[in-house]
Amino acid sequence: MRLEGLHHITMITGDAQSNVAFYADVLGLRLVKKTVNFDQPSAYHLYFGDETGAPGSILTWFEFAGAQRGRAGLGMIHTLQLGVPSAAALDFWESRLKAKGANPRRGETSLHVDDPDGLALELVVADGGNPPLRAEHPDVPAEHAVTGLEGARAYAAYASVTEGVLTEVLGFTHLGEGEYRLDGEQRHFHWAYDQAPDVNPAPGSGTVHHIAWASRDEDHLVWQSRIAEAGGYVTDVKDRDYFHAIYFREPRGVLFEIATLSPGFAVDEAPEHLGEALRLPPQHEHLRAELEQSLIPVVNPRAARRQEQSA
Ligand code: ZN
User: What are the residues whose beta carbons fall under 8 Å from the beta carbon of 182, sequence distance 6 or more?
Assistant: First the structure.
């Protein structure tokens, strides 16, 4: 039994529409689901990914409108690494991001940019082995498109000390100096700890809420008992409509989730219209009229382009 690499990473934004403009238009991902935080339905939950929202490609945000900017510190993820196919793609993204008013900084084999909430992103040349998970965007040639998530980095107090829960319970490989790799059947993911800065962590917009690893459906309950047997507190199984989820905190303080590979995002809307209508889980459907009033409407760039073409 092994985890199938990354499922998704979830962040906080203070402004859903500028979040959508950046990820689904500038970066060319697809907004694949527009729903609410199931535990706090007054807030949006937006999912972005490749054409289908395949696990490994998914970034999600809770919107807390007008939320203060947070700051990553001890026990928090501070950087997300998005794969691109080549160094030429880094050149493409450097000029596209500049043209869109972002402030990319070129590293030797990467391109750093902060999103509109201040979250640190690093575009990296994918090291091979992860089947590309691309979305289609008219201004982003397929040979330059983002190919999915390659890695993430978190802050810890003793970054270079081996974390046994990762290696013994969850099946990560320790590569040394706080660097780990999670290998699934199809995909792998780079996970790393850096020495935490001497500042108080502050949740808020631009910070990461949790990271979710992918599990085969039939393994999900086994993962839950394995974590409990190792002495960790783990939640009950939550039905998130698009997957089932359990949550627990790893010893360095980062909130981990394990999410099932199915059923996926086409369970409640047609694949060609993913992320266009506000979808609510059955338990919150009675709030629809209220939420359609209170949530600031968010336009999916793909639906907007289709409307322009047919006008
Ligand atoms: Zn999640």
Answer: 3, 5, 6, 170, 171, 172, 173, 188, 189, 191, 213
